[in-house]
Amino acid sequence: MHPLTTLLPVTALAVTLAVQAQDAAPQQPAAQPDQQAAPAAAPAQQPAPAAAPAADPNAAAQTRERIELTRDALEKWVETRRTIGVERRDWALGKDLLDSRIDVLDRELKTLADRTKEVESTLTEADRKRDALAQEAGALKDASSQLAAMAAQLETKVKGLVKRFPVPLAEKLKPLTQRLPEDSTSTTLSLAVRFQNVVGIINEANRFNREITQSSEIRKLADGSSVEVTAVYLGLAQGYYVGAGGRIAGIGRGTPEGWTWTESNDNGPAIERIVAILRNQKPAAFVPIPVKTN
């Protein structure tokens, strides 16, 4: 509030109090001009002036009481106006502070709303990825089941093929063939290991089948004796052995029950010559020898 606005009622109240005080004071009669101008030496006797009326004590007391009451009221009014001014100032400061806090909260709410939208968007994207991963997991599970069935079929076929392997190849593949599961439906081996075993066995079998292989073996003869011989394998299809300087010989073939050997001593010299050619002891030549095919 402007200072003039506050001082105007105070000034008016002060003027009112002054007027009341003047009215309450006793009135003195004014001197008459004719009496003051009379000569001092007049011999005539002047009459005594009339006595002034006495002041009313009750009126003066009432006036002072009104003045005290007015002063108290004025002080309370000034204190009240001061209190109102302080309250208005504090209210204005508090309003500014509340407005600032409201602005801060509005910004925080907007930030939280934006973050909520981002989180919802992220969750939506995560849900889509989760669904895609679930579908992919289902597809992989189906593919894994198919691969497990395929691995079981291959293992069964490889087990039957291993029986037809000659001794050199069977000994070489023993670390892999021993890892083939006895029951393909209840094995704990991973699909990767199972396929590695199958592929390794098949690769070695193919390599052996493309080559002519020699090996030194102990062969049991029909009379029950055993003799050391040199065996020659034409891949997995045919095999020969010769020993005792060509006097002992035989022909072998792979069967589902394993390799079977038949003595053929008449072919001993021819087989002995083949061994010499393979060892570079004789020049290469065509050597007639019996071959049996399925």
Description:
- Helix content is 59%, strand content 13%.
- It has 294 residues and is of the alpha+beta class.
- The chain has a domain of 82 residues.
- Strands 1-2-3-4-5 form a five-stranded antiparallel sheet, covered by helices on one side.
- The two termini are 125 Å apart.
| Helix percentage | 55-70%
CA-based gyration radius: 68 Å
Low-confidence stretches: 1-8, 25-45
Quantity of strands, as a count: 5
Along the chain, the helix and strand elements come as HHHHHHEEEEEH
So what's the oligomer here? Answer: single chain
Mean pLDDT: 81
Alpha-carbon distance between the two ends: 125 Å
- Per DSSP, the total helix count is 7
What structural class do you assign from the helix and strand content? alpha+beta
- Give the neighbour order of strands across the main sheet: 1-2-3-4-5
Report the sheet with the most strands, covering strand number, pairing sense and barrel closure. Answer: 5 strands, antiparallel
Kindly estimate the percentage of residues that lie in beta strands according to DSSP: 5-15%
User: What best-fitting shape do the alpha-carbon axes yield?
Assistant: rod-shaped
List the helices and strands and how they pair.
Layout: H1 3-24, H2 33-37, H3 57-162, H4 167-172, H5 174-177, H6 191-209, E1 212-220, E2 226-234, E3 238-243, E4 248-255, E5 258-263, H7 268-278
Antiparallel strand pairs: 1-2, 2-3, 3-4, 4-5
Question: Which tags fit this structure?
Answer:
alpha+beta; 294 residues; 5 strands; five-stranded antiparallel β-sheet; 13% strand; 7 helices; disordered N terminus; rod-shaped
